[in-house]
Write a structure and sequence with these properties.
Number of helices: 20
Shape: globular
CATH topology of the largest domain: Rossmann fold
EC number: 3.6.4.13
Structural class: alpha/beta
Function: RNA helicase.
Number of domains: 2
CATH architecture of the largest domain: 3-Layer(aba) Sandwich
Distance between the termini: 37 Å
Strand content: 5-15%
Strand order of the largest sheet: 7-8-6-9-10-5-11-12
CATH class of the largest domain: Alpha Beta
Number of strands: 21
Enzyme class: hydrolase
InterPro entries: DEAD/DEAH_box_helicase_dom, Helicase_ATP-bd, Helicase_C-like, P-loop_NTPase, RNA-helicase_DEAD-box_CS
Low-confidence stretches: 23-54, 308-316, 395-413
GO molecular function, one term: RNA binding
Largest sheet: 8 strands, mixed
């Protein structure tokens, strides 16, 4: 029979008042006598050692003293200027487009990468663009595309077909890019944007394709699917091919699909001396694979970099410039970002993460945090257990439905939750498209919240005013580190990026230093102090950590589903 709340309450109360006596067979033996348990004396046995569980619990200060010290290295960071100081009107863009940028996006000034890239794109040249995260790369190609399309006379119609094809690695980035084009095209309503990505109904997508679309944004897999099975999906009129987040496209295994799209465009391109298609390739990091993709897709390209403008008329020179950029590339982050690392024992990680969230919300009541974890199972587990333990006000004995007991105050004591009113969200690849779209939209629009995510949210996504990015598990690659923290400190705003490291992972800091990144160290105790609910108590932080840890353990022990999620998350992480 299912245990009632009253029965559960009584069981917990009895368990605390009369704890079960467990026999440790290393120091005790069971005998069928009146006393049942007879203590053996091992004081004279020199080989006897007191068991681990009987040793005194270590204090936080003692744990801190045992952690390795990370030496600070001298770092010469590579700096990129974010804004150019020039207004949007400086490049001769249509007046309605400039005004619309101010009205819809509150953008009045060109970023440095936009100032360098847009003139070359308007000249119909193939361009490889490399720039730091949050520097405005999407607008760097979107603005010239809209500028040229709105100039075409007679005006474009749906029957003109797809003029610009944008390929992006994830559904979220596809939808975000589509929404940006919708805003940019408000003054030019005759130009129709659309998107194709997994999770949407093919029947609905085919209906949209039959109506006609001028600017198409899609994931490689979905685009190839329609190339193979949808007669109305034609690329004969494509004038722009844009490969956004090129390094991520390759990392996710889309090289074959991208090659298929490029080959299809090449086959259908009209013969003649003049080049009829312009290709743009954008990436925050350069790799040999990106260079290979550039060689496949670009024709006599220019290389536009935010640190130096490298341009040439010959492919050989372009390859040389890109090779130099790859071999000597330093990682670049905005100057307004503060990077922090925290070294802590594994047993304190969950408590420290809870305290860090509380710390950020005490600094700023409407703080917005993005937390990266390694696997989908870890995201599910941490989301569910933190919602249960940190955001719900509970009654000590779980007797809120028992009439009369709580009113007297004898059997129940109301406990204040640590993160009152804070909303938690989760995002990963196994969620349905509808769920992911809803979560992403809610988190973008909310003023305060915590999003736990896998790397699905690490590329290209522009979430307004993320105050802090936390990497609860370190990334597999240095470039992933930059893309993760790039979700904060965007477009000149300030932001914090915190990474949790085990004692065995401290060399990761030195690797980041070698790539030109400066990280400051915070002691883990800083993020445990916000766990203290009642002040002016000796050893308050130690007690608060112990109480929260006990709460987490109790939740897992009493919920079989939670226990399975914890085991699954740890198994796949290891």
């Amino acid at each position: 029979a299912k245990e009632t709340k009253r029965e559960k309450s009584l069981r917990r109360k009895l368990k605390r008042k009369f704890p079960v006596r467990e026999i440790d067979h290393r120091i005790e033996v069971y005998q069928p006598s009146s006393s049942n348990v007879v203590k053996r004396t091992f004081q004279e046995d020199e080989q006897f050692q007191e068991p681990q569980q009987r040793r005194k619990k270590k204090k936080l200060s003692e744990m801190s003293a045992e952690l390795p010290k990370v030496e600070r290295k001298e770092v010469n960071p590579l700096k990129e200027s974010l804004f150019s100081g020039q207004p949007m009107s400086a490049l001769g863009l249509h007046a309605h487009l400039v005004k619309n940028l101010d009205d819809q996006l509150q953008i009045k000034e060109l970023t440095s990468i936009q100032q360098r890239a847009i003139p070359s794109i308007l000249e119909q040249k193939d361009v490889l663009i490399r720039s730091q995260t949050g520097s405005g790369k999407t607008l760097a190609y979107a603005l010239p595309v809209v500028q040229i399309l709105q100039n075409i006379r007679p005006k474009l119609t749906r029957d003109c077909g797809i003029q610009a094809l944008v390929v992006a690695p994830t559904r979220e980035l596809v939808i975000q890019t589509y929404e940006l084009f919708v805003k940019l095209l408000k003054p030019f309503t005759w130009i129709i944007p659309g998107y194709l990505c997994g999770g949407e109904k093919r029947k609905s997508e085919k209906a949209r394709l039959r109506k006609g679309i001028n600017i198409m944004i899609g994931t490689p897999g979905r685009l190839c699917d329609h190339l193979n099975h949808t007669q109305s999906f034609q690329l004969d009129s494509v004038k722009w091919l844009i490969l956004d987040e090129a390094d991520r496209l390759l990392e996710l295994g889309y090289e074959k699909d991208v090659r298929r799209i490029v080959d299809c465009l090449n086959e259908r391109e009209c013969e003649g001396e003049s080049k009829s298609r312009q290709t743009l390739l954008l990436s925050a990091t350069l790799t040999p694979a990106v260079e290979k993709l550039a060689g496949l897709a670009l024709n006599d390209p220019l290389f536009v970099d935010n640190t130096e403008s490298a341009r040439s008329e010959f492919k050989e020179d372009f390859s040389k410039v890109v090779q130099e950029a790859i071999s000597g590339e330093k990682l670049v982050v905005p100057d307004t970002m503060k990077q922090i690392f925290v070294v802590l024992p594994p047993k304190l990680r969950l408590a420290a993460l809870s305290g860090l969230i509380a710390f950020e919300h005490r600094r700023k009541t409407d703080a917005k945090l993005l937390i990266f974890l390694a696997t989908q199972d870890l995201v599910d587990f941490h989301h569910d257990i933190m919602v249960e333990a940190l955001t719900r006000k509970v009654i000590e004995e779980e007797d809120e439905d028992i009439e009369g007991e709580n009113e007297s105050g004898d059997d129940g004591e109301e406990k204040e939750c640590l993160l009152k009113g804070v909303r938690f969200f989760k995002l990963h690849g196994s969620m349905t498209q509808t769920e992911r779209k809803s979560v992403f939209k809610e988190f973008r629009n909310c003023k305060s919240g915590v999003l736990l995510s896998t790397d699905v949210a690490a590329r290209g996504l522009d979430v307004p005013e993320v105050d802090c990015v936390v990497q609860f598990t370190p990334p597999q690659k240095l470039s992933d580190y930059v893309h993760r923290i790039g979700r904060t400190a965007r477009a000149g705003r300030s932001g914090r990026a915190v990474i949790f490291l085990n004692p065995s992972e401290t060399k990761f800091v030195h690797l980041l230093n070698e790539k030109g990144l400066i990280l400051l160290q915070d002691e883990f105790q800083k993020y445990l102090k916000p766990l203290v609910m009642k002040k002016n108590k000796p050893n308050a932080a130690n007690e608060a950590v112990s109480d929260l840890q006990h709460k987490y353990e109790e939740l897992i022990a009493e919920d079989q589903q939670m226990k399975e999620m914890a085991s699954k998350g740890m198994y796949f992480y290891m």
